[in-house]
């Protein structure tokens, strides 16, 4: 080695001989990352190099020498296997799948925007759950044949790599990626020049970007890269790292993602002759400016013969936009100073689009809002006609959290639905488990809705598989532990103990995720002596494997890691509890399958969904979790354990005490004894555990594993999730979008004019009085009463409104529950602008019956009556 450092580094792609040239396309399409036969093919070519290149086909190909490649090319068996793998890929890319049965009405193309995508460890463009989810969304879309196009940024350093200092403080490094060495293809014009998209910035600067395409099975993912020669230094750095800087840097990233992303889609459609997206789905608020770019396109006289007005363009854009909110934690939502947005849009970024209207979209003009702030989530909701949270409970929480945008509405009527997240099964099921399923039941069983075949597997086989997965994790953990200690300054001579750290026969509990405070990494340390006793229990010990990165700017998170690692450093327990640095996809794929129990103890209800427990479940791990996110709707008593939540009103300290106490109690009296085959009664203290005879299997535990696989498998699959998005959100959005565009936007113009009329006139809508007739003193079920509402509509017409009676069971405080509603659709005008609305209401229940009357706007183009945030109640 010389002391010389390279001033420039680049990757030369291998030329693969013609006989096996398909290896290049097999290595470039990321389907290999979840398609076991393709991985096996690469491994078989050279197992040693496969391991050395960290299971990255492209890197392995470039590491093969010309001679080795020639040898492979002249081996008829290799050639045949490469051909067959390529045929399988071609078939996968072209054959009709689930989506192709939906018919011609299904959207031609759907754009999916996200600031991060976690697809494979070779493409580290994610920080946590949001990115992994986006990756899984693309993969399942591909498996289902959904014509999705992903849009994101290509970060030069991705997210940081984590290591620990001697005193257990998180260290961050940002190794630069070379796009040429990644499974990416640069998008080029027909003449071969790289496509360049541009965004005008303030002070006459321009931000340029190249577009890289990753192929995720059938789904192209376009990644914008500002590291191009045409840019000044600052502009080159825009895509330097994921969630790097704040302020201007972050805003420029998001402008590039949203506005640049739409421009990239336009170029892609032009170059490939494919359909323009009919639906735009934004994964969290970061990409929200895509809505502004689409409004700009519709308003720009240079682009269309008949430019639309602001209101028309907004209505047209909203019709085909879907917004997904992902977090109830304020720190997870991007907010910018209003003045910064004003500064950026004052220039040529969106000529013709009124800046005050853009500012209004992100305004927190509600109780508790900050008038100096521009809120990306709020803009997301205002720019999308359809919105959702990511689990049922998160839907409830989001409707409450954003209720300020719909003043006067009951929270349950706020138009934010929920689609529970899922995980891409072929990516997250352990290969050993997948092989077993395939051998026994055929290829489809883990892709399909029927997982109950697991009941045909014997207890012995299940238990042997669990041990195998646990042992694989233990050996991976030992390797990582040793490497981490070496990084922290230990010498090899001091590290012999790591070879026997952890035990492949001890109940293994996993906890790995990002480390924001609400996820409470250190809850388990609440009573260190009690934790120690659990770890070292003579009959039923537990061992815990922990991992997670803290955001570089979050010292509270780093302190939690430090506290935890310092506990694990104790020689008394270090063989039973370990922290593994640099949590990423590669680690996760061994971790989930290897754990018997997956632990999650966030502060309820701050975990929007959480997906790591789902990944554990599809591998037969049992969940032990606070009733938050997905677990709140899918825990059923036999698939794991629920950690009870302290009552609201307790202080944070008390809450942690109570919930940690409950966690210890569960581990001590339920989880550990059951794992070791003791018969556990719910009333643990009373009977005392009975010891199993030697070699007996823990029958109850194994039945819980089978139950988990059979019931949770299909429910947590990303195929279920993507199908729901298609049916409940994409299809309606595409239909609304088509109606909006038809006849040169005729319906949009009418709808926008209607909104512009209804909004200011709504103040004139009043319920003067409501009366009912026809009930005697002792009303009976089945009798009816006539409800009459006298209403002033001011400038509006009766057909502009829906007057409804909302009825239900009335509480002592007159709160209505179990409500239903009925339109008052018989109308009589009794004075200028004054109407009587009437209906017959049948009493459908006994007990305290109550009703109220409300008025909502009515128009065929409204996706939801609450959409405009206008309501009048009696
Ligand atoms: C699944 C996953 C996450 C998300 O975990 P949560 O428990 O949902 O927060 C984060 N990082 C990696 C590497 C994952 O695989």
Key traits:
about 850 residues; alpha/beta; Rossmann fold; six-stranded parallel beta sheet; binds pyridoxal-5'-phosphate; DUF3417 domain-containing protein; allosteric enzyme
Biggest sheet overview: 10 strands, mixed
Helix and strand content put the structural class at: alpha/beta
Can you tell me the overall shape? globular
Proportion in helices: 25-40%
- Number of helical runs? 27
According to CATH, what is the class of the largest domain?
Alpha Beta
Beta content comes to 15-25%
Q: Could you name the CATH topology of the largest domain?
A: Rossmann fold
- Name the bound molecules: pyridoxal-5'-phosphate
Backbone CA Rg: 30 Å
Termini gap: 83 Å
Q: What would CATH call the architecture of the largest domain?
A: 3-Layer(aba) Sandwich
CATH superfamily of the largest domain: Glycogen Phosphorylase B
Unreliable spans are: 683-691
Number of strands: 30
Total number of distinct structural domains: 4
Protein name: DUF3417 domain-containing protein
Keywords: Allosteric enzyme, Pyridoxal phosphate
Pfam family, one: Phosphorylase
Organism: Arthrobacter glacialis
């Amino acid at each position: 080695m010389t002391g010389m450092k390279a001033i420039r580094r680049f990757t030369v792609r291998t030329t693969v001989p013609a006989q096996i040239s398909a290896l290049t396309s097999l290595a470039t399409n990321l389907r290999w990352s979840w398609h076991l036969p393709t991985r096996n093919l690469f491994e078989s070519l050279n197992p040693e190099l496969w391991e050395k290149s960290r299971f990255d086909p492209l890197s392995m190909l470039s590491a093969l020498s010309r001679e080795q490649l020639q040898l492979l090319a002249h081996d008829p068996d290799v050639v045949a296997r490469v051909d067959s793998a390529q045929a399988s890929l071609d078939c996968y890319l072209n054959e009709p799948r689930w989506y192709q049965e939906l018919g011609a009405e299904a959207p031609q193309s759907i754009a999916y925007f996200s600031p991060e995508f976690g697809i494979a460890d070779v493409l580290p463009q994610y920080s946590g759950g949001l990115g992994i989810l986006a990756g899984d969304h693309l993969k399942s879309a591909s498996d289902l044949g959904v014509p999705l196009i992903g849009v994101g940024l290509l970060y030069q350093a991705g997210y940081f790599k984590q290591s620990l200092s001697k005193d257990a403080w998180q260290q961050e490094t940002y190794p630069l990626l070379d796009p040429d060495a990644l499974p990416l293809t640069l998008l080029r014009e027909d003449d071969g020049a790289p496509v360049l998209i541009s965004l005008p910035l303030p002070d006459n600067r321009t931000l340029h970007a190249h577009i890289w395409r990753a192929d995720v099975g059938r789904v192209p993912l376009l990644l914008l890269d500002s590291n191009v020669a045409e840019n000044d230094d600052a502009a080159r750095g825009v895509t330097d790292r994921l969630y790097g800087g704040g302020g201007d840097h972050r805003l420029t990233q998001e402008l590039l993602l949203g506005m640049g992303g739409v421009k990239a889609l336009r170029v892609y459609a032009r170059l490939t002759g494919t359909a323009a997206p009919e639906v735009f789905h934004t994964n969290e608020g970061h990409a929200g400016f895509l809505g502004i770019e689409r409004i700009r396109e519709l308003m720009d006289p240079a682009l269309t013969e008949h430019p639309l007005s602001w209101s028309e363009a907004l209505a047209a854009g909203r019709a085909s936009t879907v917004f997904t909110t992902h977090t109830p934690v304020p720190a997870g939502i991007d907010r910018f100073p209003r003045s910064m947005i004003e500064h950026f849009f004052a220039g040529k970024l969106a000529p013709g689009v009124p800046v005050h209207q853009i500012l209004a979209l992100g305004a927190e003009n509600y109780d508790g809002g900050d008038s100096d702030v521009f809120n990306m989530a709020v803009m997301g909701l205002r720019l999308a006609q359809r919105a959702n949270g990511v689990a049922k409970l998160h839907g409830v929480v989001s409707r409450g959290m954003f209720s300020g945008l719909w003043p006067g509405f009951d929270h349950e009527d706020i138009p934010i639905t929920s689609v529970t997240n899922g995980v891409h099964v072929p990516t997250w099921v352990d290969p050993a488990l997948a092989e077993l399923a395939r051998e026994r039941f055929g290829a489809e069983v883990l892709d399909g809705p029927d997982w109950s075949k697991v009941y045909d597997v014997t207890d012995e086989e299940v238990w042997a598989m669990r041990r195998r997965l646990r042992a694989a994790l233990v050996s991976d953990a030992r390797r990582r532990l040793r490497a981490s200690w070496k990084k922290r300054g230990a010498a090899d001579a001091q590290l012999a103990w790591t070879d026997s750290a952890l035990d492949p026969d001890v109940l293994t509990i996993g906890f790995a995720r990002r480390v924001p405070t609400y996820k409470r990494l250190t809850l388990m340390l609440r009573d260190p002596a009690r934790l120690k006793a659990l770890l070292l229990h003579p009959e039923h010990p537990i061992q815990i494997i922990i991992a997670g990165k803290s955001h570089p700017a979050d010292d509270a998170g780093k302190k939690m890691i430090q506290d935890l690692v310092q506990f694990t450093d104790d020689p008394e327990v270090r063989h039973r509890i370990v922290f593994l640095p640099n949590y990423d996809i590669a680690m996760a794929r061994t971790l989930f399958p290897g754990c018997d129990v997956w632990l999650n103890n966030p502060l309820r209800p701050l975990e929007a969904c959480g997906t790591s427990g789902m990944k554990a479940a599809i591998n037969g791990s049992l969940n032990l979790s606070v009733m938050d996110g997905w677990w709140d709707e899918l825990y059923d008593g036999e698939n794991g354990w629920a950690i009870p939540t302290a009552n609201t009103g307790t202080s944070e300290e008390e809450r942690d005490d109570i919930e940690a106490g409950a966690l210890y109690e569960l581990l001590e009296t339920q989880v550990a004894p059951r794992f070791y085959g003791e018969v556990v009664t719910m009333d643990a203290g009373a009977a005392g555990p009975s010891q199993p005879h030697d070699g007996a299997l823990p029958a109850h535990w194994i039945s819980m594993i089978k139950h988990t696989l059979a019931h949770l498998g299909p429910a947590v699959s990303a195929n279920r999730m993507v199908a729901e998005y298609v049916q409940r959100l994409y299809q309606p959005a595409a239909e609304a979008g088509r109606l909006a565009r038809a006849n040169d936007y005729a319906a949009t113009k009418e709808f926008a004019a209607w909104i512009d009329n209804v909004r200011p006139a709504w103040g004139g809508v009043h319920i003067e009085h409501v009366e009912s007739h026809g009930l005697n003193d002792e009303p009976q079920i089945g009798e009816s009463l006539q409800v009459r509402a006298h209403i002033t509509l001011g400038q509006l017409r009766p057909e502009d409104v829906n007057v409804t009676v909302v009825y239900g069971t009335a509480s002592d405080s007159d709160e209505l529950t179990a409500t239903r509603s009925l339109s008052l659709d018989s109308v009589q005008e009794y004075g200028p602008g004054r109407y009587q609305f009437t209906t017959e209401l049948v009493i459908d229940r006994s007990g305290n019956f109550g009703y109220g009357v409300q008025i909502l706007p009515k128009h065929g183009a409204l996706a939801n009556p609450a959409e405009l945030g206008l309501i009048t109640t009696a």
